[in-house]
Specification:
162 residues, alpha+beta
Length: 162
Amino acid sequence: MAVSLTVNGDERSLNIEGDTPLLWVLRDELGLKGTKFGCGAGLCGACTVHLNGQPVRSCSTPVEMAAGGDVVTIEGLREGVRLHALQEAWIEHGVPQCGYCQSGQIMSAAHLLANSAAPSRDEIVAAMTGNLCRCGTYSRIIAAVESVAGAESSNGSQGGEA
């Protein structure tokens, strides 16, 4: 099956089986290794990417569902040569330990901030539910998201993805 989609701003055309999970297209066909395989059932959130502005679990999203769509991965979240504000906050707050879940965590947080410039702690917790962290850095994750939300609300930015 011929599939065309935009990935991180670049038009991509592939000849691939339509039921191939988007995760494997990103990792194996396009060489974008930032999105991780966790559970394979869409339950852990490690594989979260944005499809047409919405977070999806790429391990359980067939590539045919992304055909003609716009996919943003952790690699595409950067703002030019600079890291996204969330990526910087992750470093500042020492969020990653093993780091395995972090791309999915950041993609979920980016979606939240794209839609709510000043979310409450409860809204942050709700938005991050479903993204599992085996290392248990949830308090650091929340602090990192709060720091970006606070900075964006104080400088008038609306937050969002690159």
